[in-house]
Amino acid sequence: MQKVKGTALVWFRNDLRITNQQSLSNAIANHENIIGIFHFPIHWFKTTEWGFKKMEHFRASFLIQTLTQLKIDLEKINISLWITVGKWEKCLKFLIDKHNITDIYAQKEWTYEELVDDSYIPENIKKHWVYDQFLFHPDDIPFEQNSLPNVFTVFRKICEKNVEIRKPLLPLSAMPKENLLNYVPPIPTLEDLGYEKIFWDNRTAIPFKGGEQEGLSRLDEYFWKTKQLSNYKKTRNGLIGKNYSSKFSIWLALGSLSPITIYHEVKKYEKNVTKNNSTYWLIFELIWRDYFKYISMKYGNSIFKIGGILEKDYSWNNDAKLVEMWINGKTNEPFINANMIELFTTGFMSNRGRQNVASFFAKEWNLDWRIGASYFESMLIDYDVHSNYGNWMYNSGVGNDPRDRKFNIKFQSERYDPLKKYEKLWTQ
């Protein structure tokens, strides 16, 4: 097939990888010249209505590490990565004019801020949007958007029965060396973006760096070197250390790992090592991730509204003193405090912890759940808009939990931290 003259722009969003990267693969197949671009939107560094910086230093640092690796990986196949900071429309216009851009390839997004970014692309530029963040591809699921089940189990069972997971893409072929640009802007440092240098706490459960190669290395370690995958279901509710769960979420959030890659590696593991409840459960969690994406697609901006997708009217409050106590780990529940201190100190918290602190925030103290969700957005290294707001709605009684449960914090503490090891680790 003859390639198109002119230059294509591959706009990297939350798909910061070169393996199983559909936009990049399509651009290489169709164009003689390609430039990669990543943009730091101005609003990432602003303060939200709840008083939190939209992206705190933990997530920013991990993103910079990820981009550093992406730039290296792209250069190996002779593609330059142009990184911009500032007004997207100005940066885009400059690059289009300077390099005769005719086409843009990107991962399709649907939440509000991403759609605003989309709107700045000139009409004369051909747009090639693809869904590239799912396990179950939107074109393959047996639901129309509006008929998506509001109960996860229904969604999961129907998809498991009817959807075949797509195969990994073929390895990328390199572009000619002439495709590399003579100059690209340097990757900004934390200091460039207005952050202070961070000091990593040796108690962290995620002693990992950002980037596709780091994610693939972790996959290799968790599956093949340690065989921890065989025990995943038994250990996934743990609280201390890097191996109680896979920690893939930190690379999935930025798209440094594709769920397709993980799925097929699980299948390989099942064939060569063992197939058990744990191997299935890891896929189960990938399906949950998909589900929250589909829920946000179905309900749009309702996931950010106080009544959630159920439009329930609770008596919420926004007591700033209580919010501050929760953030700083000064509540009357030591288990909650330990989790919140871990988050503040490391930018991470276990899934078990997240459920408990969200339930406490919304159902014990009746605080506006959107404040808690906004704080998580600011702090979490593995922040994902769909999973974050989906889980907060779920735990606050305005989302997809048909039972509208409330966590018994003391019971949870006794069950998952019976010797108080976790509590002592973070509160003493």
Characterise the protein shown here.
This protein is α/β, with parallel strands linked by helices. It has three domains: 4-132, HUPs (Rossmann fold); 213-301, Serine Threonine Protein Phosphatase 5, Tetratricopeptide repeat (Alpha Horseshoe); 305-427, DNA Cyclobutane Dipyrimidine Photolyase, subunit A, domain 3. It has 17 helices and five strands. A five-stranded parallel β-sheet has the order 3-2-1-4-5, sandwiched between helices. Helix 4 (112-118) links the parallel strand 4 and strand 5 (126-130). Helix 9 (259-272) runs antiparallel to helix 10, helix 10 packs across helix 15 (385-396) and helix 12 (334-346) crosses helix 13. The longest helix has 23 residues, at 277-299. It is globular. The N and C termini lie far apart (65 Å). The model has no long low-confidence stretch (mean pLDDT 95).
Count every beta strand, where a strand is a DSSP E run of 2 or more residues. 5
Number of domains: 3
State the CATH topology of the largest domain.
Rossmann fold
Side-by-side strand order of the widest sheet = 3-2-1-4-5
CATH architecture of the largest domain: 3-Layer(aba) Sandwich
Mean pLDDT across the residues is 95
| Major sheet attributes | 5 strands, parallel
Distance from N terminus to C terminus (CA atoms, Å) equals 65 Å
Into which percent range does the helicity of residues fall?
Answer: 40-55%
Per CATH, the superfamily of the largest domain is HUPs
CATH class of the largest domain: Alpha Beta
Q: N-to-C SSE series?
A: EHEHEHEHEHHHHHHHHHHHHH
- Count of DSSP-assigned helices: 17
Strand content: 5-15%
The low-pLDDT segments are none
Over the alpha carbons, how many angstroms does the gyration radius reach? Answer: 22 Å
Structural class: alpha/beta
